[in-house]
Design brief:
Length: 306
Amino acid sequence: MNITICVAQTKAAPWEEGFRAQLPGAHVSTWKAGDPQADYAIVWSPPQAFLDEQPGLKAMFNIGAGVDAIMKLRLPPQAQVVRLDDAGMSVQMAEYVCHAVIRHFREFDGYEADIAAGQWSYRKPRSRADCPVGVMGLGVLGERVARALRVFEFPVHGWSRSPKQIDGITCHSGTEGFNGFLAASKVLVNLLPLTPDTQDILNRETMGRLQPGGHVINVARGAHLVEDDLIALLDSGHLSGATLDVFRTEPLPAEHPFWQHPKVTITPHTSARTLRDESIAQIAGKIVALSRGEPIAGVVHRDRGY
Ligand code: NAP
Ligand code: GLV
C-alpha cells in the first residue's frame, strides 16, 4: 500500500514517521513530482499538479476539518475526500468560543482598561437572557460549541442546513429559518464550512439583523465574512465587537484595519489546531477500515462541498 504525504505549510517528516509507525506494512513517502501513484494521500491544500498525477487514488485524507481548499480543485473522480473528524479539535473550539463569549458578556476588556487606568470600578451585572448566542453550523464543531455554551446557561440558538433536535438548544434550519435565527441572536458564532452557499454569508444585511450591541465570532473561514461590512457595523455602534480567528488573507496583512481596530480581537487561525498524533491515529484507523472494505465516518459529499 502506497501512502503519500502532500501537506502545504506543514512539516511532512513527522507525519511520515507517524504513519510508518501506525501502518508498518505501508510504503509512506512525501510527494515529489513523478513519484509512483499513491493508494491513499494525506493532504493539506495540495497543488493541482499532485492530484493530476493520481488518477488511481482511493482516498485523500485532509489533515483539517475544512475541505474548501480541496473542493476548488479538479479531483480524481473515484477518490473519496475525508475530513478530519474532531480528533481533538472540538474541545479546543469550545474553549475558544466560550472564552470569547464570556469575555464579551462579563466585559473583561472594559475591566482591563479600567485597571490599566488605575480605576477600581464595577459594571452592572448583565442578564444572560439578554445575551442569546447563535451558532451557525451544528456539525462536529458547532454542536460541541453550542452544548458548551449551554453549560454557562446562555440561551443558545443553532442553525444548520437540515433540521436538528439538540437538548437545550433552539434549532433553526434552512434558508427559511435563517432570519429568525439571526433575529434571536446577539452573539453570532460562525462554524459553517466554506461553500458556494456560505461564502460572504456574514455581511451588512445578515449581521445587521443581529440584536443591537451584538458580537461576531468568526472561527470558520475568512471568506465567510465581508470585512468592510463588519467594520461599518462596528463603527455605527450596531455591533459592539468582533473576535476573529480567520481572515480573507492569511497572514493578516500588516496594513489591515483589523490590527488596530479597538473593537476587534484577532488571533492567528489558531482556535482549533490539528493535533498530529490524534489525527494520524484516526486516519490510520480509517485506512485500515477502507482496505478491509468497511465504511468510515467523515467522508465529504462532493455535491454539498463539505
Ligand atoms: P461539519 O461537521 O461539516 O458541520 C458543518 C455544519 O454546517 C453542519 O451542521 C451543516 O448542516 C451546516 N451547514 C453547511 N452548509 C450550510 C448551509 N448552506 N446553511 C446552513 N447550514 C449549513 O463541519 P465542522 O467540523 O463542524 O467544521 C466547520 C468549519 O470550521 C470547517 O469547515 C472549517 O472551515 C472550520 N474550522 C476552523 C478551524 C480554525 O482553527 N479556525 C478549525 C477547524 C475547522 P447539516 O448538519 O444540516 O449538514
Ligand atoms: C482548520 O482551519 C481546519 O479546517 O481544520
